[in-house]
């Protein structure tokens, strides 16, 4: 089982950024824990702050992964382009969020990804990624 995690803008700052909302752990150390927890899963991780790069990565992932775990961060709420890319590829995408976006500001309630995702996991902290991996097993 080969899965790709794609993280969007500002998620490179996890651990430092708004720890009250996103926690104290950086993604790299969590990613290492994930690799240990799921030795049978071949995991790749890609992070970009650039919308078009995320679209390129989604397109390139098709055929190379059995699933994609996507936290498009702020682009979730604004990017028709990322939503269209998720729709365009046959690879199943799980949308994840660290925080419970439904309990936050109104502008975070809209997702351009959710209508084309296999499912959505939000509000479990970094554990949201782990739950997404489990959904593929
Ligand atoms: C986020 C939620 C988004 O609204 C926000 O812009 C982020 C992170 C989350 O994982 O909780 O950057 O996707």
Summarize the structure.
By secondary structure, this protein is of the alpha/beta class.
Describe this structure in words.
By secondary structure, the chain is of the alpha/beta class. The protein has a single domain, classed as Rossmann fold (3-Layer(aba) Sandwich). It has 5 helices and 5 strands. Strands 2-1-3-4-5 form a 5-stranded parallel sheet, sandwiched between helices. Helix 4 links the parallel strand 3 and strand 4. The longest helix has 11 residues. It starts with a strand and ends with a helix. The relative contact order is 0.21. The chain binds 1,3,4-trihydroxy-5-OXO-cyclohexanecarboxylic acid (DQA). Pathway: Metabolic intermediate biosynthesis; chorismate biosynthesis; chorismate from D-erythrose 4-phosphate and phosphoenolpyruvate: step 3/7. Belongs to the type-II 3-dehydroquinase family.
